[in-house]
Amino acid sequence: MLVPHERQFVFDCKVCSQASFALDEDKFKRRQLRHLLTRSKFGAITFLLMHFNPREQTKGIQTAETWAFPVYAEHPLWQAFDRAETKRITRAVRSAMPVEHAARWEK
After folding, report:
1. 101: which residues sit within 8 A by CB, 6+ positions away?
2. CA distance 83 to 73
3. C-alpha distances in Å from residue 94, one per residue of 6, 52, 80, 97, 102
4. pLDDT tens, 60-71?
């Protein structure tokens, strides 16, 4: 039995050592994202927790970063993905979002 005002939290965790994470990868798109979006319709707080490992580049070092992207149908990232405007999550995609659309943790 649920007590009034209780909410379910559902999240999917990903680690990315590449420059970006492909959102249109079959398993993620068909199973994991669909599950998160479905749960959000029932009032669950859902998000994608994305950790980017540090990367050495000729321009310098990108530090490790961890971001939480809320997952619900009206979120700008998932709307852009649905319209095929966004196919990957990169650090640049995140930096273009308003702060309230993602949370960040650093070491």
Report:
1. 69, 70, 75, 76, 77
2. 12
3. 30, 12, 13, 5, 7
4. 888 898 888 899
Start-end of H helices in 48-96: 76-82, 91-95
Phi, psi of 7 (to 5 degrees): -135, 145
Backbone φ, ψ for residue 39 (5° rounding): -65, -35
Side chain identity, residue 85: E
Whether this model's pTM surpasses 0.85: no
pLDDT digits (tens, 9 = 90+) for 3-35: 566 788 999 999 999 888 988 887 787 789 999
Side chain identity, residue 36: L
Walk me through the domains of the chain, giving residue ranges and CATH numbers: 9-105 (3.40.1350.10)
Structure token pair of residue 67:
């971001």
Cα distances (Å, whole numbers) of residue 7 to 44, 48, 97? 6, 17, 26
